[in-house]
Every structure is written in C-alpha cells, then in structure tokens.
Amino acid sequence: MANSYLDISGVSIEFPTPNGPFKALDNVNLKIEKGEFISLIGHSGCGKSTVLNIVAGLYNATQGGVILQGKEVLQPGPDRAVVFQNHSLFPWLTCYENVRLAVDKVMKGKPKAERHEWTEYNLELVHMGHAMHKRPDEISGGMKQRVGIARALSMQPKVLLMDEPFGALDALTRAHMQDSLTEIQAELNNTVIMITHDVDEAVLLSDRIVMMTNGPAATIGEILHVDLERPRERLELADDPTYNHYRAEVLKFLHERHAKKDVPQSTKKATTTTSDAADKKEEDKKDVAA
Amino acid sequence: MLNRSIRFFELTGMNWLIPIANLLAGKNPKAQLNQLLASIGAPLVAFLIFLLLWSTAASNIKTSLGNLPGPSQTWEQFESLVDEHTAARDKEAAFYQRQEDRNAKRIEQGKEPKDIRPYTGAPTFFDQIFTSLYTVFIGFAVATIIAIPVGIICGLNSTIYTGLNPLIQIFRPVSPLAWLPIVTMVVSALYTTDDPFFAKSFITSALTVTLCSLWPTLINTTVGVSTIDKDLINVSRVLRLSWMTQIFKVVIPASLPMIFTGLRLSLGVGWMVLIAAEMLAQNPGLGKFVWDEFQNGSSNSLGRILVAVFVIGIIGFLLDRIMLTLQKSVSHDKTQEIR
C-alpha cells in the first residue's frame, strides 16, 4: 500500500441536500502505478466525475482520502492538472496566453525565454503551433480541446486528469484526438485518469478500465486489465479477437450486470452519449448543493 | 482603408454608413444604393412623418406663451442660441482686449499694470451643455468606482450579497427628486469651505447622479461575477492562482461584458437624472437652462426648451453609442449581436 504512486483509499463522499445527506461514493479503493493509463467508465450520474474531482482536490472526501507520492491530497494544484470536458479556456486570452498562464505559474523564476519555448513546445506537441495566437472563439471544438490538453501537459503534472475530454466532439474528431493522445502518451508516459462514456475509447487507450456501479453510493464494480501491445492501431484492432473480447467485457458489465433500471436496454447505446449533458447537469446540481 | 472603416462602423453601430463607404469606393453601386435606401430610407420617412405631425399639432395648441412651437420655430430658436453664443464670445474677447489695452497704456505711462479681471457674463447654452456633460461624468465616475468593487464582492460572496440585496432593491427605484433635498442638505452641512473648488450645486447634482446610476452597474457586475463558468474558476484553483491574480486575470475579464452592460445602463440613467437634478439644484447646466426658460416665460421660451429637449436626446444617444462601442470591444463572443 505504501509503495503505490497514487492511492485512492476508502473514499466516500456525501453531499448535503435539503432532504439529508446524499451519499455519492462509497468506499472507493484504487491503487495506480506511475505511467499507468486508467479509464473510469460507468453510467451517467454514477460519480465518475466526483472521483476525479476528489483526486484533483476540488472536492474533499467525507471519509478516506487520496495519497499521491506519499502525500495526502487536500487542495487542487498544478501537479494534478485537469482537462475539462468543455475545454475551459479563458475566452479573452489567445491559445498561447492560455497555456502561458499555466507555464508562468509552474515555472516561476525561470527565464522568460525558457517559459516561452516551453509554451510553444507544448502547443506544437498537440499540433496547435499554427493557431497559437488565435482566440478560442476562432478555432474549432477539437482544437480548443487540444489547447486544453497542451495547457494541462505544460504543467508537467504527476497525474493528468481528464474529464470526458472528447465527449463533446464529433466521432471523427474524437478518433483523431484519441490518436493524438496515444502518440503523446507514447512520448511522455504520463500517469492518466480519464473519464469516458465510450467503450472503444476506453479499450483503445487504457492499461486498466475501472468500471463503476450505479449511484447512489457508487463504488468500483470491476477492474479490467487491458493486455494489448502498444502501439495500438485502431484499424488492426477492429478485427482483433482479444480487443473485441475486452470490449464485450465492458459492455456486459454496463448493460447486463449494472444496467440502469430506468432506461430501456435497446436504447442504451444511444443514450450513453446523449446523456452526457444530463450527467453534467446532475454533477452541477451537486456542486450547488455542496 | 475601406475594410478598416467598415469595421469601425460595425463596432460603433453605425451600420448604415457602410453602404456609403462602399459607394465611395465604387463597389457595386446599385446594390449599395439599395442597401442604403433600406437602412436610412425607413428612418427618414418616419422622421418626416414625425415633423409633419408635430407641426400640425403644434399650430393647434395655444398656450399662455403663444402657440406651441413647431419644427421651424424650434430651428429659429436654435439659430438664435448659436448667435447668442458667438455674440457672448465676442463680448468676452472684447472685454479682455479692453483690459489689455488699458494695461498697455498704463505701462507706457510708467504705471503698474492692473490684474486682468475674469469675464463674468452669463453662460451660453453651449457652455451649459459642457457643464452638464462634466457633471454627469463626475457623478458617473464616482458611481463606477463604488459599484464595480462592491459588485465584485457581492458576486464572489453570496453571504454578503444576501445581506446587501434588500438594501439594493430598496434604494434602486428611488427617484432623483427624492434624493435631491437630502443630498442638498447633507452637502450644505458637510461641504463648508471659504474658497470652494466646486460649487455646491455642482456637488449636489453630481452626487444625485451617483446615487441613481450606481445600481445598474452594481447589479450587472454582481450577476457577471456570480455566473462565471465554474470550470474557469476550477482552472484557476488547479493553477493555484493567488487571490489578486484570480481577481484581475479571471474574475474581471470574465465579467467585463456584463460590467459594461451595466455601465451603459448607468450612464443612460445618470444623464436622465442629471437634468432633473440640475433643475432643482440650480447647477448651471441644461436642466437649469430649461428651468430658467420656463420661469422666464417669454414667447421664445418654449422653442428654446424644445431645442434643449433635442440636444439632451441627441447627447444621450451619442453617450449610449460610445458605451455600446466599448461594450462591443470587450465582448468575448464577437459573433454575438449587441444593440
């Protein structure tokens, strides 16, 4: 226990509501090694984002806690950079300035030229070098998300937290972004926790897929080790029996063992993506309650 | 050059000038003329109808000061106000010239020159416009200096907002006419110097403007700050920005569009309030002009008051356009239409 890089141990959280406390998470335990890519998957409203926010330090667990490299996480910080679903770039700053704001914060005291170079390096890494002096409202959704990722990477976080980073993008752009992320991951070997609704995305990118039960009082249902060789090629894997086996495992978990009672089985696939927004709203409500 | 002037017109909301600019540049004259007709044709027709209705109505209304002036009489009064202004300026110049001539003579005769005495003629209509503008800007500036910080604090802290909200709601609808007597008495009591830099009437008017134009900025700033995207706040928490950096790099830029919406409303309210305040406080601006003409009661008075009405309206419109331009230039979403 003492040796793991990131240790989420016995985390429970309750949100006060007018009708008494609402227990969103119950006894979540997860140990993550350095350089691991973890996906969190589960139905809408099961508390995936809450787990991520606790690791980020944006929420504090009611019971249990998160230990990163032997230190307890008590507040947010740049060592746990977050990529939010809706890019969250400052609209009045250019892409460069958005990244530079983070760089200036984490590289305080370094010479200006070095900070400038590091900002540009990270934008180049996500292939945004050509548009770095544009404002967020002048670029597409996928490009904004790239800048969001560049900003997070520029902080050189110990853990990179991604909250449905590609959820708001169309399928083609999403595939493109996944390939980019694979490429960056191969180069930097970050420790990543990513929330997703997309089964293919989870299998393609992850070392382990953490499947969560339905809320309230959600917890980890199963953990699936994905033993696929890297680099993984989307097209080759499409016919790969192991890949399809993993895919089936996740689907079975979501749709057989932990199906949502209020949603008819046949429409599940479609609703998982459209319910993203609803999920987000629910999460927001909790924020207000908290 | 062409594109730059078009962008300027768009920013200032003078879209109807765009076809003229295009026309001057010789770009597709037929289409430009049609566009021009569409954009200024309708307002022109409406204005002509208005003038017609005005002049017929005016000739049928008899007051104790003669007929209600129509457009042509009002225009005459405007011209006479301009004449009076130039005459007063000539008189002023002559007054100083006389003193200088006299001093030159004294020097010739080996005597000490006398100090130049300031001209004390009555302010003209145009002097009064500038007094009004100056007063409204001071009042508005003071309101802004108070409203923006208080609004930011209210937006950030819901407890403070809950505490202040009833007070804001109670004082917001109070008419300037109700404030004025209190402000007058307070200013008389507190502002007692032998050699006042500002006239009391000026301070009273400006403070009344402040009291009334505070609220739109305060409320809009509060709303702007409290509705900042939660993710943006989370980003600044992850970055561990210091409190000051968070205010100046995140909170203020994010709520700037709303702040400017509030400022625009505030300046509009301030200008409206000022006229009433000047009337009662006897601050030498447009309000006093209207009041004096009303008390004067000559056959020209109503025409002169109507000139003032138009001038007040046009200046209010110009002020609003200036604020609109500022508002557009700070908006993050350039595609959004702000009118």
TrEMBL record, chain A:
Span list, region Disordered = 257-290
- Membrane association type: Peripheral membrane protein
The text of the family note is:
Belongs to the ABC transporter superfamily.
Q: Where in the cell is it found?
A: Cell membrane
Lineage of origin: Bacteria, Pseudomonadati, Pseudomonadota, Gammaproteobacteria, Cellvibrionales
Q: Which domain of life is it from?
A: Bacteria
Biological source species: Sessilibacter corallicola
Pfam families for this protein = ABC_tran (PF00005)
What sequence ranges are listed for the domain ABC transporter? 6-239
Q: Where is the composition biased (Basic and acidic residues)?
A: 277-290
Q: Per UniProt, which keywords does this protein have?
A: ATP-binding, Cell membrane, Membrane, Nucleotide-binding, Transport
Q: Which GO terms describe its molecular function?
A: ATP binding
Q: Give the protein name, as stated in the record.
A: ABC transporter ATP-binding protein
- List the InterPro entries hit by this protein, alphabetically: AAA+_ATPase, ABC_transporter-like_ATP-bd, ABC_transporter-like_CS, ABC_transporter_ATP-bind, NO3_transporter_ATP-bd-like, P-loop_NTPase
